[in-house]
Each structure stands twice: as structure tokens, then as C-alpha cells.
């Protein structure tokens, strides 16, 4: 069980990192690495993931009832997600499809719980 959570945590960090990388490359025109702002966001996102007490039960931060990001960082990560999310299918198709499946599964689970 503990290994599943750490695998999930690492997968989430990898996905967020890829999304930030894509965003920075396309929006900030970086050739290598990240601009200082995106590097700071990536580090912050990893820290939030490392300390998330809900990792065992949540699918994605967007589905979480507790928003642990500072408001300015939350707005930044939302911009990254809005931009990178739809483009992930072209750059990381397996990650994108897995995310889509998990999102649909979570939505169904939440609908079942709300009917009870």
C-alpha cells in the first residue's frame, strides 16, 4: 500500500513537471530547461505533492476539496494546466490518456457518492 502511494506521488510529480516544461517551452520560448518563474512553480508543485495528506484517496489536485496552493501559485498552475492539458495528447499521449481515464473514473465515483 505504501509503495502504491509513493508511486502515485512520483507519477503526479512527473506529469506536472512535463506540463510545466511544455508550457514554458511554448509560452516562454525556452530552449533548454525552465525559466526562473516556471522552475519555481515546478519546485513548489513537487513540495505540495510531497506533503499531500490526501494522496491515498485523491486522483488529481483539481478534484481535491482542500486547495493547499498559495493563491498566486494556484493561478499559475491553472494557467499551465489550461494550456498544457489539451496539448499533452500530442507530446505525451500515454500520460494524457491515463489522465482522461482516471478523470472519468473519479467523476463517476463522485456521482455515485452524491446520490447516496
Written description of the protein model:
There is one protein chain. The protein has 116 residues and is mostly helical. It has one domain. It is 73% helix and 0% strand. The protein is built from four helices and no strands. Helix 1 crosses helix 3 (71-91). The longest helix has 26 residues, at 2-27. The model has no long low-confidence stretch (mean pLDDT 88).
**Count of alpha and pi helical runs:** 4
Sketch the major β-sheet: none
Question: What is the arithmetic mean of pLDDT?
Answer: 88
Oligomer: single chain
Distance between the termini: 28 Å
Which terms would index this structure?
single chain, 116 residues, mainly alpha, 73% helix, 0% strand
Topology:
Layout: H1 2-27, H2 36-50, H3 71-91, H4 93-115
Helix pairs in contact: 1-2, 1-3, 3-4
Task: Write a compact overview of the structure shown.
Helices cover 73% and strands 0% of the residues. It is an all-alpha fold.
Amino acid at each position: 500500500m505504501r509503495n502504491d502511494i509513493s508511486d502515485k506521488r512520483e507519477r503526479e510529480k512527473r506529469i506536472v513537471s512535463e506540463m510545466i516544461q511544455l508550457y514554458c517551452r511554448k509560452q516562454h520560448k525556452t530552449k533548454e530547461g525552465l525559466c526562473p518563474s516556471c522552475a519555481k512553480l515546478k519546485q513548489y508543485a513537487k513540495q505540495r505533492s510531497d506533503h499531500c495528506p490526501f494522496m491515498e484517496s485523491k486522483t488529481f489536485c483539481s478534484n481535491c476539496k482542500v486547495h493547499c496552493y498559495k493563491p498566486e501559485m494556484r493561478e499559475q498552475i491553472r494557467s499551465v494546466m489550461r494550456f498544457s492539458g489539451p496539448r499533452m495528447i500530442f507530446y505525451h499521449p500515454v500520460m494524457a490518456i491515463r489522465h482522461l481515464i482516471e478523470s472519468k473514473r473519479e467523476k463517476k465515483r463522485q456521482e455515485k457518492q452524491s446520490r447516496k
